[in-house]
């Protein structure tokens, strides 16, 4: 059974952060493809409106789409999300940890903001993966966990260190998760559970106005579906300003800060910025 079947009719997805942006677009696509979709987000009109729209588009009928008010930073709400999904659809095939908070900014931001960002962006996905793992593993069909990272968690640009830190930690966690899954004796063969790191580029989401250079969320969804179907772990999206080649050079440059004994974030250091621009263009 090929991995693309994960996104087919009769399968069930749980998407967090489903009220807006990439999570909403993904829910819409999966429901159009005939999947049952559980849309999890903080309670409110955004979630209600998104669920109404996705239900209207669901090829398996409106009953195939359920909205569940969920704060992913709360273990009891994650447990309720899993139990509610199993009650509604009896199985889980795909978990997409996509919810995000962008609290805080610089190094001097209040500790409360740092903690909140870690709770939502890191502990949310970790708690969800742990809670959903047994169900995903016992499913004989191919299943997947997709965690949504960011280029900011790889190249660490200045300006929003809290966010970068959460995404860097999520990358490390997801890499280790996939390593353990592929070495698990009971998780071998075509029906195995895989983990993936989705790394969107600049994407117009939330309630932001679309600007030239950014992708619309649907293109991220295309890349995600292709990536999981093709068995890729790192699913890195370019955008209309930054090509895949530029991304590769920026990632290499950041890694070489260590091997070349340069200062960290040297791409933005006055002594190295010009060389970085030349190397990464
Ligand atoms: N938009 C981009 O350019 C971009 C770039 C790189 C990575 N990403 C990543 O893609 C993912 C989706 O981003 P987006 O821009 O589509 O987001 P968005 O801001 O459009 O939506 C995020 C959703 O997460 C929900 N959320 C926040 N806190 C939550 C909580 N505690 N529990 C449950 N839901 C919560 C929000 O209510 C919102 O609906 C994120 O993980 C983000 O870090 C986005």
Describe this structure in words.
The protein has 281 residues and is an alpha/beta fold. Helices cover 47% and strands 13% of the residues. It has 2 domains: 3-241, NAD(P)-binding Rossmann-like Domain (Rossmann fold), CATH 3.40.50; 243-281, no CATH class. It has helices at 21-32, 45-57, 75-89, 111-138, 152-155, 161-182, 217-229, 244-259, 273-280, and strands at residues 12-16, 36-41, 65-69, 94-97, 143-148, 193-199, 234-236. Helix 2 links the parallel strand 2 (36-41) and strand 3. The longest helix has 28 residues, at 111-138. Bound molecules: nicotinamide-adenine-dinucleotide (NAD). Nicotinamide-adenine-dinucleotide (NAD) binds next to helix 1.
